[in-house]
Amino acid sequence: RLFSSAEAVFSHCKTEHQFDVSDVIQKHGLDFYGYIKLINFVRLKKPTGAYLSSLSSPLPWEGEEYLKPELEDDLLLQFDIEDLCEPVKVLPSNGLSDSMVLLEQLKHAEQRARAAEAALARAQDDLQKMNCSAFLNFLLYLSRKSEPCLFFDCQDKVRTESYRDFIYQNPHIFKDKVVLDVGCGTGILSMFAAKAGAKKVIGVDQSEIIYQAMDIIRLNKLEKIITLVKGRIEEGYFLLFESMLDSVIYAKDKYLAEGGSVYPDLCTISLVAVGDMNKHVDKLLFWEDVYGFDMSCMKKAVIPEAVVEVLDPNTLISAASVIKHVDCNTASTPDLEFSSDFTLSITMSTQCTAIAGYFDVFFEKNCHNKVLFSTGPQCTKTHWKQTIFLLEKPIPVEAG
């Protein structure tokens, strides 16, 4: 029998077979992938409505084989389940009070919340069961504060092309492996990994960008390989707006399979001296005379806060000094709290007004083609920019 729309199919199932698809979705908290598995299971096994309505966990369609379409160009697989589960608008009539309408809306909201929690729990359970072979896309951010949208920006050519070159030039690392993309953002790295031959890619991100990423994955027909989870890797809420390296270490210790690797696998943190009196005046001396008022006490609040911006390389007055090497495959959380003595070799006789920090990233372990990139001021600018620590008073320095 042929139907004119997906809605007509669902209506037929409900009236003729006592099987309500929306009820099953809400009862088991099915996400988009769970819905696809359900439809393919029904197509293949042809169970009765009573059987489907009586099911409890574990569900018979949880296997990955049910992601494969049973029917070519199945329009039901293209249906937006959000439309199916939209709340029914109840208008006050026949004496139904406003409070009854509100109660009905609250009940539906509670159902959707339970469904979302169940979907997240199921995704985390899947993640727990998988031994991951590689990690991607962690951010080593020097500032204590970060920008309000620190996800992987695929318009940043330095970063994107470095990751792309590493993945595409070393496909042997990803072939038939399970990859965990920590902080997946738009999903660009997950898609690189899938194209390089990964068996399964799981992307995790706390940002709302994850919803656009889901659409991107579907548009590129990679939903059978890539699964996206909104949340924090430690406990379901991914830490996006601070340093992610501690989250990567947590994920490494919890999920990485024996013989697996974290990428990038090496990082260095460097410092360099800066001589820029104009910037120093703008940031600090400004407070000594603000429209005729002395606000110099504000300097105490400004100095402890690092400034994140792109440095003019012409203001560098020393060679760089590496203060920390991080092996991401062996590092532990305590390793991220460190102090370091350092010496800066001055290259210009002038006034030192600040110390700037940046990091370099290396893809080396088991790589046939090694890739690196730098976030330093002497290189093409990246989203990370540099982190500048202002000195309260400029220090006279001599070259040599």
UniProtKB/TrEMBL annotation:
Residues 24-69 form the Protein arginine N-methyltransferase 3-like C2H2 zinc finger domain. One of its GO terms (cellular component) is nucleus. It catalyses: L-arginyl-[protein] + 2 S-adenosyl-L-methionine = N(omega),N(omega)-dimethyl-L-arginyl-[protein] + 2 S-adenosyl-L-homocysteine + 2 H(+); L-arginyl-[protein] + S-adenosyl-L-methionine = N(omega)-methyl-L-arginyl-[protein] + S-adenosyl-L-homocysteine + H(+). Residues 269-400 form the Protein arginine N-methyltransferase domain. Keywords: Coiled coil, Cytoplasm, Metal-binding, Methyltransferase, S-adenosyl-L-methionine, Transferase, Zinc, Zinc-finger. It is an enzyme of class 2 (transferase). Its main location: cytoplasm. It is found in: Cytoplasm, Cytosol. CDD domains: AdoMet_MTases. This is type I protein arginine methyltransferase. It comes from Agelaius phoeniceus (Red-winged blackbird).
